[in-house]
Design goal:
By secondary structure, this protein is mostly helical. The protein has one domain (26-285). It is built from 10 helices and no strands. α5 crosses α10 (265-285). The radius of gyration is 21 Å and the shape is globular. Residues 4-8 have low confidence and may be disordered.
């Protein structure tokens, strides 16, 4: 048994070292991509000169009814389930809660897609969900993720330094609620549900809502590409833990830029997936 433990420890150490080397290489590659983009686009000033416009008839009522409807239903369901008198253990209560949240987001996604099919000039293709170029979207999304990831990590590091200087050595960055639930329990049923929820469903749902609907609506009322990106990114980021704002605003701007540059919502979804999946992987490894 001791021999097996030593072998497992050695394998884990080897895996940890490989991960550290890979992260260093990825960070250097990302910085190189970011520097190259900065020089080629004049610090971003020329990056969206040929931004794709997505003709649509979205109204203020449609967009914000969906947005606030989702927030209201989610808050009501969370509060209702957590206040139910029950002898269930906490992990089962959270399993029920997030199962309900999955259903809510799937229903709203269906409504968003139906709205896009109705209000966008070319239906779902006009929203950016065309069938062509998926491989290109995946590769471009990965390159964008690698480019923006070092900036996100640097900002998080600065937040930790500032937090420790103000609050003391015990300061920690607040965890996302879904990630905290994933790490809190050992039961595989809730872990698999949370991985699906955070890594797959959330990127699709949030990009449909914030990039697909909100950012497209802002473009349609006359805001330019960058203003639309910043406005939708601020709203998106404010719905996450406030401590995450500086890092998430960078990621959100990158996803918004990818949408305006390519016209493909799939590209944003893949960037979001890479970020969430890597965050989950690092948290589980640690």
């Amino acid at each position: 048994m001791k021999f097996l433990f030593l072998v497992a420890s050695a394998n884990y150490e080897w895996l940890h070292n490989c991960a550290s080397i890979s992260l260093s290489i990825a960070a250097l590659a990302g910085l190189a991509l970011l520097i190259n983009w900065t020089l080629k686009t004049g610090f971003g000033t020329k990056a969206l000169d040929s931004a794709v416009f997505r003709p649509n008839l979205l109204s203020f009522y449609t967009v914000f009814t969906i947005l606030f409807g989702w927030l209201g239903v989610t808050l009501f369901a969370s509060d209702f389930i957590r206040k139910l008198p029950s002898n269930l253990p906490n992990w089962q209560r959270d399993l029920i809660l997030y199962s309900v949240l999955v259903v809510i987001e799937v229903v709203i996604m269906v409504f968003v897609l139906a709205s896009a099919k109705r209000f966008f000039q070319s239906g779902l293709a006009g929203l950016g969900l065309g069938r062509d170029g998926i491989f290109s979207d995946i590769t471009s999304a990965f390159a964008m993720f690698i480019a923006v990831w070092p900036l996100v990590m640097i900002v998080l590091y600065v937040i930790v330094l500032v937090g420790k200087s103000i609050a003391g050595a015990d300061f920690k960055v607040e965890q996302n609620e879904g990630l905290a639930v994933l790490l809190q329990y050992d039961q595989w049923s809730i872990r698999l549900l949370m991985i699906f929820f955070a890594a797959i469903l959330t990127p699709v749902f949030e990009e449909l809502l914030f990039r697909g609907l909100l950012q497209s609506y802002l473009r349609s009322i006359g805001l330019g590409p960058w203003r639309s990106i910043f406005a939708s990114s601020i709203i998106f980021t404010l719905l996450h833990p406030l401590m995450h704002f500086p890092a998430l605003i960078i990621l959100s701007i990158a996803m918004g830029y990818a949408y305006e540059k390519s016209g493909s919502l799939l590209r944003c979804i893949f960037i979001h997936f890479f970020f969430n999946a890597s965050t989950i992987a690092f948290a589980l490894l640690n």
